[in-house]
Amino acid sequence: MTLDDLKASFSLMGSWEERYGLIIDLGRQLEPLPQDAYVEANKVRGCMSQVWMISQTQPDGRIVIRGDSDAHIVKGLIAVLLMVYSGKTPQEIGQIDIKSLFAELGLEQHISANRRNGFYAMVERVGQMAESS
User: Which residues are registered as beta bridge partners of 57?
Assistant: First the structure.
């Protein structure tokens, strides 16, 4: 699913329960991380749940990002982040206005403050990955 597909699906759904269901389904579709990725160095600080993120820079400079969490909704938020950031160059990552996109999807108003803070901690981690690539 692409970000445009997600926006279209959200616009067709009447309730936030349906949207949460879609987000959780997206999280279930994430490719598992390799076992050796579940280490302290890959943990995202600032999240209430356990979150791990890794990246790999491709020969063309694009960054492939992967992630996992022990919480279903957070895994779904990781999937949304990957739609936005993975496969982009560090320059493209730096130009993304994630707060506007988050608000456009309605997530700003419909997830808890703790989850929102965790989401932005993941965004910050993506920025660090882009800077160090």
Answer: 63
Residue pLDDT, tens place only, 14-60: 899 999 999 999 999 999 999 999 999 999 998 889 999 999 999 99
Q: Which amino acid is at 93?
A: I
26 contacts 107 by C-beta, under 8 angstroms: no
* Helix spans in the chain (H): 3-12, 16-28, 72-85, 90-95, 98-104, 107-110, 113-132
The yes-or-no verdict on residue 8 having pLDDT over 90 is: yes
- Number of neighbours of residue 114 by Cβ within 10 angstroms: 12
Q: 0.85 cut: is pTM over it?
A: yes
CA angle 96, 99, 101 (to 5 degrees): 70
For CA atoms 116, 119, 123, 129, give the dihedral sign. positive
Q: Is 73 helix (H, G, I), strand (E, B) or coil?
A: helix
Residue 47 catalytic? yes
Tokens at residue 36, please?
A: 């050796």
> Which of the following is catalytic: 23, 26, 47, 53?
47
